[in-house]
Structure formats: structure tokens, C-alpha cells
């Protein structure tokens, strides 16, 4: 197989440090409030419903995917998920992101996944565009 080009070009990755800085605008965990520990990013939406590198889809949490509040969120701890949900629901940019990605499903998603209700209803754009 020597001499044959790789059929898949390498994927370009955005600057991970820049994404982390944008997502971690707060210097404390959105679930427990700790600021004396390294923070990581928790994805609000997973898979096809979310754009992983969009800062509006990320919230700062302590721990990794298996430790701290981040681990508790992945273990579906109701109290931790609710605190994360409250942080998301109080951020207009993140609410707009959820509505952009999920449309009418945004309210139900936040209620089911994070145990919180968004205060605004998802309204379709009068010009026929994406929901606002």
C-alpha cells in the first residue's frame, strides 16, 4: 500500500484552548460554585442535536467525565443536573442556542434532561425561518 494517498484527509481541529476559554467564561463550576479546581466543559446537547465546538453548548463544571460535578452529570445525578439546567436557563445565549438546535423540542428537553423549565416559549420566526 506504499505510495497510495490516504483517502481521508486529516480532520482539522479548532484550537481546543480557545474553545475552552470561550466556554469557560465563568471561573467557577456552574453546579457547585467551586473555583479552586480545574474546570472542564460539559455539553448541554449531545450527538446530532448539538454542535460540540459551539461555546453556547458548553458549561463549566469541575471534574472530568467520571469525577466531580462533571461525573455526577454523566451519572444523571438529579441535583447536579438541575443546577446545570438552572445555569443554562438563566443564560439568554444558551436558551437561543437550544431553540436554534431543537426548535419546539427545547422546552421538553430542558424539562426532561435537567429538570428545569425555560421561561420563554419557543416561537416560530414570523418570516418562516428557524424558531426563535
Entry summary:
This protein is mainly alpha-helical and 132 residues long.
Residue ranges: pLDDT <50 for 5 or more in a row? Answer: 121-132
Structural class: mainly alpha
Helix-strand sequence: HEEHHHH
| Number of H/I helices | 5
- What general outline do the C-alpha atoms trace? globular
Strand order of the largest sheet: 1-2
Oligomer: single chain
Q: What's the count of strands?
A: 2
Helix content: 25-40%
Strand content: 5-15%
Mean pLDDT: 78
- Profile the largest sheet: 2 strands, antiparallel
Q: Between the first and last Cα atoms, what is the distance in angstroms? A: 52 Å
Could you say how many structural domains there are in total?
1
Rg, Cα atoms, Å: 17 Å
What does this 3D model show about the protein?
- The protein is mostly helical and about 130 residues long.
- The protein has one domain (about 15-115).
- It has five helices and two strands.
- The chain has helices spanning about 15-25, 70-75, 80-90, 90-100, 105-115, and strands at about 40-45, 60.
- Strands 1-2 form a two-stranded antiparallel sheet.
- The model is unreliable at about 120-130 (pLDDT under 50).
Secondary structure layout:
Elements: H1 16-23, E1 39-43, E2 58-62, H2 68-74, H3 78-89, H4 92-102, H5 106-114
Antiparallel strand pairs: 1-2
Amino acid at each position: 500500500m506504499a505510495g497510495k494517498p490516504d483517502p481521508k484527509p486529516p480532520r482539522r481541529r479548532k484550537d481546543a484552548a480557545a474553545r475552552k476559554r470561550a466556554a469557560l467564561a465563568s471561573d467557577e463550576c456552574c453546579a457547585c460554585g467551586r473555583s479552586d479546581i480545574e474546570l472542564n466543559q460539559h455539553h448541554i446537547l449531545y450527538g446530532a442535536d448539538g454542535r460540540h465546538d459551539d461555546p453556547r453548548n458548553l458549561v463549566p463544571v469541575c471534574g472530568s467525565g467520571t469525577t466531580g460535578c462533571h461525573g455526577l452529570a454523566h451519572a444523571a445525578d438529579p441535583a447536579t443536573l438541575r443546577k446545570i439546567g438552572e445555569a443554562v436557563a438563566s443564560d439568554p445565549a444558551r436558551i437561543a442556542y437550544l431553540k436554534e438546535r431543537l426548535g419546539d423540542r427545547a422546552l421538553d428537553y430542558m424539562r426532561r434532561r435537567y429538570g428545569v423549565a425555560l421561561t420563554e416559549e419557543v416561537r416560530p420566526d414570523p418570516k418562516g425561518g428557524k424558531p426563535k
